[in-house]
Amino acid sequence: MNDALDDQWNPTDQDGSPHEGGFRARFDVTTERGGPRYGEFNEQVRLLMDRVRYACPTGELTDELIADLKSINGKLADVQIDEWHTPAGTRIDLPARGNITVPPYDVTDAGPDGVTAQITFRPYHLGGNDAAHGGQVAVAFDDLGGMASALKIQGVSRTAYLTVNYRSITPLRTPLTIRTWVENLDGRKVYVKGTLHEGDRLCADLDALFIRLKPGQP
Ligand SMILES: CCCCCCCCCCCC(=O)SCCNC(=O)CCNC(=O)[C@H](O)C(C)(C)COP(=O)(O)OP(=O)(O)OC[C@H]1O[C@@H](n2cnc3c(N)ncnc32)[C@H](O)[C@@H]1OP(=O)(O)O
């Protein structure tokens, strides 16, 4: 990545808040960043991706869409900020903490004993033949496995390995139940398990290792 792009994607930290471990020691959560309609904005972006995934525009319409998207991207270019201060990833009142890169989930229970969430894979999470992409299932497990680890150790960790067993088809557009919990702690090693169900049917399960980061570790 060239320097200009690197600057673009790594905007300077806004307040130099303490940096212990790969994530901030102080993880700000918010329900206000981006304004009261930020969730609606997220939903429109997700809908855009759904529509793009299944669209077959004419050449003329593609020209029009490029112009529209350039206009939107221009507006967003004016409000770029570092990752620690964005609504995306910190808006705990919104699906997947307002992070549109993660399949949308709503946490129904979370604590040191684990996390339970309702998750719905969107049309744009298509892998093939109307089923979710295996990588998207892994993204969901990584995020919620990381959350189970964080809540158990009250600290930050990074994924060392993430094994997903795909037991049956994971449907799109269907509310599913995802659970993650810490099975075992061994020093800095946090062993996490997880399941993804449609009703009683097991779609996938997780076996992962997260490593608690040392102070200052990137
Ligand atoms: C409410 C808001 C929530 C917010 C919740 C937010 C959730 C977001 C979650 C997203 C998480 C991510 O995607 S993180 C991004 C993906 N992951 C990464 O990029 C990690 C890249 N890898 C690394 O940085 C490193 O390898 C680490 C940090 C994983 C480990 O390096 P290290 O810290 O130097 O530790 P190291 O000494 O190597 O290993 C420590 C111990 O773990 C063992 N170990 C290390 N790796 C492995 C491995 N793959 N398989 C088996 N064992 C391993 C070692 O043998 C050792 O055991 P012993 O000798 O002690 O017995």
UniProtKB/TrEMBL annotation:
It is found in: Cell projection, Ruffle membrane; Cytoplasm; Membrane. It catalyses: dodecanoyl-CoA + H2O = dodecanoate + CoA + H(+); (5Z,8Z,11Z,14Z)-eicosatetraenoyl-CoA + H2O = (5Z,8Z,11Z,14Z)-eicosatetraenoate + CoA + H(+); (9Z)-octadecenoyl-CoA + H2O = (9Z)-octadecenoate + CoA + H(+); octanoyl-CoA + H2O = octanoate + CoA + H(+). CDD domains: PaaI_thioesterase (cd03443). Residues 1-23 are annotated as: Disordered. The keyword Hydrolase applies. PANTHER family: ACYL-COENZYME A THIOESTERASE THEM4. This is Acyl-coenzyme A thioesterase THEM4. It comes from Gordonia soli NBRC 108243.
